[in-house]
Specification:
By secondary structure, the protein is an all-beta fold. It is about 0% helix and about 35% strand. The chain starts with 17 loop residues before the first strand and ends with a strand.
């Protein structure tokens, strides 16, 4: 008998100036209709902000508010962040400075 998979209900809460981003899925077919295997697809540098930390710690001990909010769609550098997988979902944990732009 196979064991049922438990849902862990883990929630990531980034610390300080860090954010949690979930990548958007890349296109599986080219404009010409060719289906791309996983190994040929680039990981997109676009994602949705899932959680935001408390902000950067300033010299005077206060925190600056984050410029990002959960739900923002952002562009980030290709090598940004650390990959974390929770419940078979891949997230990126990165610094707010790694975000290049917000897509509106």
């Amino acid at each position: 008998m196979a064991a049922a998979k438990k849902s862990t209900k883990i929630r990531l809460q980034p610390m300080g100036e860090r954010i949690v981003v979930q990548r958007v899925e890349s296109e599986e077919t080219t404009a010409g209709g060719i289906v791309l295997p996983d190994s040929a697809r680039e990981k997109p540098a676009r994602g949705t902000v899932v959680a935001v930390g408390s902000g950067r710690l300033l010299d005077d001990g206060s925190r600056s508010a984050s410029q990002l909010n959960a739900g923002d769609v952002v562009l980030f550098s290709s090598y940004a962040g650390e990959t974390v997988e929770i419940d078979d979902v891949e997230y990126l944990l990165m610094r707010e400075d790694d975000v290049l732009a917000v897509i509106e």
